[in-house]
Amino acid sequence: MIKIVSIDFQKDFSAEGGVCYKPRPSVSFIKNTLAPFLNSKGIKIAEIISDYRQPRPGDRGNCCHPGEWGYESEIPKDIKDKKIWIKCMNSPIWVRKNGGVSSKKPGLPYQDPKRFEKWLNSVVGKPEKTKIVLIGLTLDCCVLCTAQELNFRGYDVRILAEATDPYSGDQKEKESLLKDSPIINWADTITFEELKKTIT
């Protein structure tokens, strides 16, 4: 079974005016090509998003505030699994008290690998039965950390080349990251044409 998992496809990263926005071709590809294709096949996307409010020791970033425009996902509601995972650091195992709750002060980040495993098993699937294709932002940060964590858990991980970008948005950097960087230790690259062949 193949499962698509989206990382941090939130307006603070993906939309003009967002705190961490930069022009990135993957945004248009996901919204205008990938999402309609998956919808036509009845395929849902599992989603990991971020609550990046302070305090977050070791990371001065401050964006994706629950209840605000920048926190909103750009994955269409009709193709996303309802049960999303909310992280607070680059790696998905880092969570916080009141994560995703706009009306309450967020707690300090802490690791909860067992709860993440429970979410994976129920929403994504077990490692021995599931191949994961990652999409979203950003390739050199949260997509990378998620690929590592999933690989360590025994998943066969792919990154959909057209559906991710580095923080900079630079396409030469993206090409280098997908081919020549340590990312290849934890995930292989798949193209959209290759993905379509495995689904259709």
What is the radius of gyration? Answer: 16 Å
**What is the terminal separation in angstroms?**
13 Å
DSSP strand content = 15-25%
- The CATH homologous superfamily corresponds to Isochorismatase-like
Shape: globular
Stretches with pLDDT under 50, minimum 5 residues: none
Explain the overall architecture.
- By secondary structure, the protein is of the alpha/beta class.
- The chain has one domain: 3-Layer(aba) Sandwich (Rossmann fold).
- It has helices spanning 11-14, 25-41, 113-124, 142-152, 171-180, 192-199, and strands spanning 2-7, 45-50, 85-87, 94-95, 110-111, 131-137, 156-165, 188-190.
- A six-stranded parallel sheet has the order 3-2-1-6-7-8. Strands 4-5 form a two-stranded antiparallel ribbon.
- Strand 7 (156-165), helix 5 and strand 8 form a beta-alpha-beta unit.
- The two termini are 13 Å apart.
- The mean pLDDT is 97.
Compact overview of the structure:
The chain contains 6 helices and 8 strands.
Keywords:
alpha/beta, six-stranded parallel sheet, two-stranded antiparallel ribbon, 200 residues, 8 strands
Task: Give a topology summary.
Blueprint: E1 2-7, H1 11-14, H2 25-41, E2 45-50, E3 85-87, E4 94-95, E5 110-111, H3 113-124, E6 131-137, H4 142-152, E7 156-165, H5 171-180, E8 188-190, H6 192-199
Parallel strand pairs: 1-2, 1-6, 2-3, 6-7, 7-8
Antiparallel strand pairs: 4-5
